[in-house]
Amino acid sequence: xxxxxxxxxxxxxxxRQSVAFWCNPISGHATLYWYQQILGxxxxxxIQFQNNGVVDDSQLPKDRFSAExxxxxxxxxxIQPAKLEDSAVYLCASSLAGVRETQxxxxxxxxLVL
Amino acid sequence: GDSVTQMEGPVTLSxxxxxxxxxxxxxxxxxxxxxxxxxxxxxxxxxxxATKADDKGSNKGFEAxxxxxxxxxxxxxxxxxxxxxxVYFCALETGANNLFFGTGTRLTVIP
Lengths: 114, 111
Description:
A: mainly beta, 4-stranded antiparallel β-sheet
């Protein structure tokens, strides 16, 4: 079974530029998550989708971050404009629908903002 | 609010030594508890989990017991190997599928 796929794996941009990350979850997983992991910290949830609807985006900085999952499968996370403090690893995870289902993580996208 | 406090690292052990990584939590309700592991260059992987008090999760020689009375979920392994070198994250989930992670503990095992 294929795991969660993410691209790109690495991205370097200058502050105020825009960047987008892509995630393809495990087939059949209705729930998709985006996490931000700053160096030396644990991952922090940014947004959770159930199919193509948002379940929780309370930690998403909506002035600069946006995410979509239009067809209930792939998802894109965008940052516009980027700030230095956005440098982090962006992790995508997916799980089956329902509570307390195990989350499976992708390899992450490492973003460096200069 | 819900949170996890994890033993700070880094931890360096010799091969075959005993490992304990402490984890305590604060949560409303009855959380599920997890240990995730991140090997160098790889993504987070679920190592073990426990969904109710007194449950013991185990995998690959690692164990952790869900202690409600001490709000703890300490990770243990009797004899570590070089291949166990990784970053270990304790996490809790309170029923909304929202995982709260600790800050991670880096383990290095030397031959």
